[in-house]
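User: Before I run my own analysis I want an independent prediction to cross-check against. Here's the chain; please return only the C-alpha cells and, at the end, one sentence I can use as a sanity check.
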Amino acid sequence: MILKVFRPGEKSLGPSALARRTGLPKATVHRMLHEMARVGLLERVGTAFRPGLLLFELGQSVPHRRDLLETARRHMVVLHEATAHNIGLAVLRDDEVIHVDILRAKGSPRVPQRTGGRWPAHASCSGKAMLAFCPDEEIDRVLVGPLQRVTPRTITQPDVLRVELDRVRRARVAFDRGESFANVAGVASPVLSPDGEVLAALSVSGTVGRINLARMDVAVRTSALAITRDLAAAESIVRPVLGRRD
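Assistant: C-alpha cells:
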C-alpha cells in the first residue's frame, strides 16, 4: 500500500503524507518506512522517503517481462518512426492495464499515463485488446463491474462491452475513440504467447483528428504479430536448452 501511493513527479513523501494516503496509523507507517528503508525498498531523503533502487533491481530480475520488453522495443521504435505517434506497451493485471513501456512523439498529447502507471482496462484500447483474449471467467469477473465512466464515451454497459470484446477477438485489434481521454484516440493489438495466452498489448495513440485510426490499424496489428512471432521463435530455442517438453 505504501509503495503504490507514490505518484509520478514526487521526489519524496514524509510519514504524515503517506499515512493520509494509505489510511494506515501513523505509528504503523513510521515503523514500516524505517524497515523498508533498511532493506532497500525505500531511500531516505532527510526526514522523507522515496522509492529505492531495490525496486528497479527486482524489476530487472523478472526474465519473462524483460524478454518481452526487449523483443517489443525493437518493433516499437520502428512503429514510432513510421507513425510519429505515441507507442505503448501494456500488460493486464486484474481489471487494470499497466504501462510497461512508452515512446512519446513530438506534438502528441501528453496524457497522464506513465511507465508503471495503471488504467481501467475497459477504458482503453490496450485493455480491450487484452481482455478479448482472456478466459471467459476472467472476462465475466471484469464485466460484473462496476465499470468506471472515465469520459462520456467510455463503455460502461457490460452487454455492450461484451459485444465489443467479441469484435476485438475477431479483428485482433481494439480502438479507443475518446474513451480514456476526450481528445485522444488510439488502436491496440494483442501480443500472444505460443500457446495463445495474452501477454501484452501494443498501441498507437494520438490526438483526435490528427491520427488516422484506419491506417494505424494495419500497422499496429502487423507489429504486434511480429512481436508474437519473435517471442515464439525465442521460446523454441530456449525450450531444448532448458530441457522442457511440450
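Sanity check: The chain has two domains: 3-59, 62-240.
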